[in-house]
Amino acid sequence: MTDVILETRGLRKAFGALQATDDVSIALRPGEIHAIIGPNGAGKSTLIGQICGSLAPDSGQVFLAGQDVTGKDTAQRAQAGLGRTFQISQLAMEDTVMQNVLLGALGKSAAPWRFFGAVLNDKALRKSAMAALERVGLADEQARVTAELSHGQRRQLEVAVALTLQPKAFVMDEPMAGLGAEGSARLTKLLDGLRHEAPILLVEHDMDAVFALADRISVLVSGQIIATGTVDEIRTDTRVREAYLGDEA
Amino acid sequence: MTRESYVNLACLAGLILIPLWAHVSDEPFTITLATRAVILALAALGLNIALGIGGLVSFGHAVFFGIGGYAMGILAHHAQNYTPIAEWPFLIEGTKSMPIIWLLATVVSGIVAFLIGLLSLRTTGVYFIMITLAFGQMLFFFSISWAEYGGEDGLAIYVRNGFPGLNTLVPLQFYGLCLAILLLALAFQWRLAKSPFGLALNAARQVPNRVKAVGLNPFKLQLVAFTISGMITGLAGALFADLNRFVSPTMFSWQLSGEFIVFIIIGGTARLFGPVIGAALFVIIEHVLGGISDYWHIWFGFLLLGIVLFGKGGVIGLLAGGAKAHD
Amino acid sequence: MSAILVIEQLLNGLQSGIMLFLMAAGLTLVFGVMGLINLAHGSLYMVGAFAAAAASAATGSFFLGLVAALIGAAAAGAIIELTVLRRLYARDHLDQVLATFALILIFSEGTRWVFGSFPLFLDIPDLLSGPVTLPGGIQYPLYRLTLILIGLAVAAGLFWLIARTRVGIRIRAGENDREMIAALGVDIDRLYTFVFALGAALAGLAGALVGAIQSVQVGMGEPVLILAFVVIVIGGIGSIKGALIGALLVGLTDTLGSIFLPQLFRLFMDPAAASQIGASLASMAIYVLMAAVLIWKPTGLFGAKA
Questions:
Q1: Does A165 touch chain B (CB under 8 A)?
Q2: C302 touches chain B (CB under 8 A)
Q3: Which of residues 83-102 of C touch B (CB under 8 A)?
Q4: How confident is the model at residue B323 (pLDDT cuts 50, 70, 90)?
């Protein structure tokens, strides 16, 4: 099992009569970007919720670095090494860019229970925060209030906050959402390099980005994985073309 | 220095100079008013840690104010009557010593705040507001039914409690003591807001999902903040009871809880000196309008309505420019 | 203790619960449809009681007093909705709390200004005074029995209104999707004013009905308001059914607790201490109930999942 970082086994979740995820098993291997694609309503958000701990599965398990984390909450999974980004940016808009990444560093150090000493002067936290900002190219913006950032910069900051956790695996929920061509290209380049630090489970609608980045793709339709394979395999898979790319074929 | 710092400095100067002036020109009532303002500011400052930084709109903070008041009332009542509080399992006697009273007031307030927080923080938004209000009412009715300590009539304490090295019966000395505590609390809050805990708490208000996603637990952060907040308001309650040498169920009343929120909003949410300016303005308005009309609450109501509807950022926002409002 | 006493207290609990429902229904509707937390709802209860007392004193008719309570409270509700509250729907709860807190100050002191600080009295009409003999030989005040019947009738009417009428459909739609019903051409401003006035009229009716067995005075509304909050927290905010169940639970707990808890403690304590502790605990019983419900279901018995 050591060659799989993040794994789901037989995840099922139903809302009433709707089977939102139906026996979903996927594996994220070291150094790869594993994309999950699927039409709207396929169950991608439900899947992410179960992987990250905001939704409890009806049955099935989630493993992170060989450890069963199914019974753990979001915070515990983050402590265990799961770094996520949100489809809709979850950033403290009143705070500065630096404060937002410091929050991540604080989570990593598991030391929010210090009531004295300015967090902005904490060398260790700052160092890890600065490293994350430099990695995503936001070092110059560190003192700005987050609300003033452009949409693209906010998407980069999302990634930076996840980076401060020094996670074992990333889960990224539509990081390209709302980005223009230029922004997408920049973020694509960033994620491309990031896979060697920790593998990325990428849920994404932007097919150019997916085809450019993904080592493997899983296709989720009506709660089920109908195919998993390389970009070329998925492109030529008839079931996928039928179910998902039908109108483009 | 920012304009807000100048406003804060001016406020500080007023807190020191006005009572000194009143002392020199022999106006003890002005000192009493100033003491009242300082103590109410301390109570609202306590609430501001929960509300301003943590975003927890507690409509029940009079609970802690009342507990602080009764901690003083009960200890001093037994001391002045020479009756023990308890004889079993060991003898507990009353006291007229402020430090011991303060200790009890903060500890008991902290425990109650922890328990109320444990239940209330399971909910958010409007539920949280209503539940804290209901817990406030619960203790209000409990204090009314507690006949041993005066029930509805409350407890009168004949002589103000003592503090080592001071004559607390001199208005200016008691004022100085209260001001010193307020300044300590302000320094505490200032450092808290900048600390790692403050950063995490502030983020838990704005983006709880993010806080979870970086491995922190918003519930725990908020529970600790709520407890600290209750302790400070409890300490203010003990001082308030000592100012009036009287404690009654009105210290638990929901109106008081509402007024604490009002102080913060008038002054400006999450501003360091917001509660101080708000409480001082309230005491001044109460004094001035109260002198003109028996029905001054009407005009205060219209004023408050105007501030809420049209003036975001409170008085400090107005003076310092740039509303620091948040939703 | 006798069965008669128990039945009598059950009826008392039912009566206070059903009056509480009239208050809680308006609060929960306003929150469900407009997302507004309205502290001034207790003021509307007070307005109803004062309108009834003034009108029945002037005309000599209790029933004209009730009409005045309905009209007065509905008008007061519509006025504050039109002038103040509609500016607050999109604001956060903190602003709503403060603005409606300000309204309480204005209403309370305004009423004190007009009517003075002394309580007014609203007499039970002769037609409804005196006891009535229930099956089983229980003597029970006719007026209180009437309150139960009126309350049940209003509750039934309200359920019918929400479930069966056009305006009810709009109200339910408004709870689900504001933009959508506006897009469908429903005049949402008028709907809001109507819902608010309806809630206000119910509060005013409760104020007038209860005013006749208690006294009519400034500040009478807020204790009831807070009880109504407890009710809708227990029942689940936005749910009329929850408000009814919650109100009955609170009414019964409060009434039965204050009678039977002291008696319970008397079984193993000396009488003075028992009534002391019993009374203290009874005063907290409904809050303990609320806490228990919250531990079990944080969004109330019939509340939507957060």
A1: yes
A2: no
A3: 84, 87-88, 92-95, 97-99, 101-102
A4: very low
Which helix (DSSP H) or strand (DSSP E) does residue A8 occupy? Answer: strand A6-15
Q: Is A233 left (phi over 0), alpha (psi -120 to 50) or beta?
A: alpha
A244: pLDDT confidence band, cut at 50, 70 and 90?
Answer: low
Q: Is B256 on the interface with C (CB under 8 A)?
A: no
Amino acid at position B174, single letter: F
What is the domain class of B3-320 according to CATH?
mainly alpha
SS3 content of chain C, % helix, strand, coil (to 5): 75, 5, 20
Q: Which of B235, B234, B257 has the alpha carbon at shortest distance from B135?
A: B257
Residues of A in contact with B211 (CB under 8 A): 103, 107
C199 Cβ contact list (under 8 Å, min separation 6): C25, C26, C27, C29, C30, C41, C44, C77
8 Å CB contact of A114 and B216: no
Fold of C3-296: ABC transporter involved in vitamin B12 uptake, BtuC (1.10.3470)
Residue type at C192 in one-letter notation: Y
The tens digit of pLDDT for each residue in A68-108 reads: 999 999 999 999 999 999 999 899 999 999 999 999 999 88
Which residue in B123, B124, B142 is closest to C280 by CB distance?
B142
pLDDT at A249 over 50: no
Q: Do B131 and C99 make contact, defined as CB atoms within 8 angstroms?
A: no
Domain map of chain B by residue range?
3-320
**Do A220 and A157 share a structural domain?**
no
CA C234, CA C239: separation in Å to the nearest integer?
10
CA distance C299 to chain B (A): 7
**Looking at residues C163-192, what average pLDDT do you find?**
78
Q: What are phi and psi of C119, to 5 degrees?
A: -65, 145
